[in-house]
């Protein structure tokens, strides 16, 4: 048996294959995970129902498994900071860079995008890209 908080086999496998500079997209319930990310990235569907599981719940568990080097989120179409970005920032030990939606979508096609996790997050713009760091 595993003794870590993260026990999802597909997520563990994708993280093990990825390594340093690999990217993880945590997507909200509105994000088109089938068409707006690198097609070679593994996809895990944790969007059981609206609000289950949330992006912050998934982030909380991922943080127990991998070091994070950088993070970025979307700002709204009006250029405002979504409320959820403050929550992401408080959970991470790295600054959360904010990108306009077009640049955010472009980044999801990065060749290092290893894992896309669909969540049931209902907060708008609740999407986050994490870059895996190194274990020190």
Give an overview of the whole structure.
This protein has helices at 9-18, 55-62, 83-91, 101-107; strands at residues 23-27, 42-45, 68-74, 96-99, 113-118, 128-132. The chain has 136 residues and is an alpha/beta fold. It has a six-stranded mixed sheet.
- Total of domains: 1
- Principal-axis shape: globular
The strands making up the biggest β-sheet line up spatially as 2-5-1-6-3-4
Give the tally of β-strands. Answer: 6
Describe the biggest sheet?
6 strands, mixed
Tell me the number of helical segments per DSSP (H or I, 4 or more residues long): 4
Q: What are the segments in which pLDDT stays under 50 over at least 5 consecutive residues?
A: none
Q: Secondary-structure element order, as H and E?
A: HEEHEHEHEE
Helix content: 25-40%
Q: What's the N-to-C terminus distance?
A: 25 Å
- The CATH architecture: 3-Layer(aba) Sandwich
Structure classification = alpha/beta
Name of the level-1 CATH class: Alpha Beta
* Proportion in β-strands: 15-25%
CATH topology: RbsD-like fold
CATH superfamily membership: RbsD-like domain
| Gyration radius over CA | 14 Å
Round the mean pLDDT to the nearest integer and report it: 95
